[in-house]
Amino acid sequence: MSSATGHHAQQRAWHSQRVRQKLGRAVAYTLAVIVAIGFLLPLFWMISSSLKPDYQVLEFPPRWLPDPVRWANYPEALTYVPFARYGLNTLFIAVMTIIGHILSCTVVAYAFARLRAPGKNVLFVILLATMMLPYPVTMVPIYVGFNKLGWVNSFKPLIVPAFFGSPFFIFLLRQFFLTLPPELEDAARVDGANILQILWHVILPISKPALATVAIFSFQASWNDFLAPLIYLHDQSKYTISLGLNFFRSSYDVRWGYLMAASLVTMLPVILVFFLAQKQFIRGITLTGMKG
């Protein structure tokens, strides 16, 4: 009798545990759906607004679905200003910035991670300290320097700094390089490889996740940058997409339909780049924080 009672008690405990697990999963899924809706709601409103006449965008109560649907907002927005030219300018700056960051940050990060030098840790702390400086603090002296070089109203101030490294990207790559087994480099040294050959033939081929992370972050920052092009670019033929979007706003009016349509088109390259490198990006983000 006592064994049967104990068996029933174990079944009730097991059933109660299963119920709690299912309830916990249901609560977690419900919260995840609510958070997802919260993130997707602005995107849905943006898509809806891109298909509305301007007078419907600011209606109250809000009109969630456009009536009538105005597809003409897209071609009219993209021809209202020379968006093709601005897109090519932005793409050129973004690609060159990615190349600069990968070339410079990879070398510096590998040196901090693998090479021995007196004061290396102190220099790394100083490098990290530069991340604490807000951009407005360095904006004026950097502008003065570029102005003396005659680089204002050109793409050089937007591209050349990337070839001198970024503290954040150096930190990410250093953290990734620290996770790699040193036996790989030892084997290459036995075969007679020097430091640059080890970096090029051994380290970089297995560093695709970290490099993809740097490339995505760099592309997103360059593609969405507004302040730096606003400061350095004066000729409208050299404007970027972020500056082009500002043409839909004036002191007295905002072309909401055009602005939302052009903004959606502007988002597509960043989303495409992310999904093309999604696996490498997630793996790189995971691995770069595994070792300090």
Task: Walk me through what this model shows.
With 292 residues, this protein is mostly helical. It has 15 helices and no strands. It has two domains: 49 residues; 208 residues, MetI-like fold (Orthogonal Bundle), CATH 1.10.3720.10. Helices cover 72% and strands 0% of the residues. Helix 4 packs antiparallel against helix 11 and helix 11 packs across helix 15. The termini are far apart.
SSE order and pairing:
Elements: H1 2-50, H2 54-57, H3 73-80, H4 83-114, H5 120-129, H6 135-149, H7 156-159, H8 167-178, H9 183-190, H10 195-203, H11 208-224, H12 227-232, H13 241-245, H14 256-276, H15 278-287
Helix pairs in contact: 1-14, 3-14, 4-8, 4-11, 9-10, 11-15
Quick recap of the structure?
It contains 15 helices and no strands. The protein has helices spanning 2-50, 54-57, 73-80, 83-114, 120-129, 135-149, 156-159, 167-178, 183-190, 195-203, 208-224, 227-232, 241-245, 256-276, 278-287.
Keywords:
72% helix, 292 residues, mainly alpha, MetI-like fold
Query: Structural class, please?
Result: mainly alpha
CATH topology of the largest domain, what is it called? MetI-like fold
What series of H and E elements makes up the topology?
HHHHHHHHHHHHHHH
Number of domains: 2
Strand content: under 5%
Give me the Rg, rounded. Answer: 26 Å
**Low-pLDDT residue spans:** none
Q: Look at the structure and give the mean pLDDT.
A: 85
Number of helices: 15
* Approximate helicity band: over 70%
Q: What oligomeric assembly is this protein in?
A: single chain
Per the principal axes of the C-alpha atoms, what is the gross shape? Answer: flat
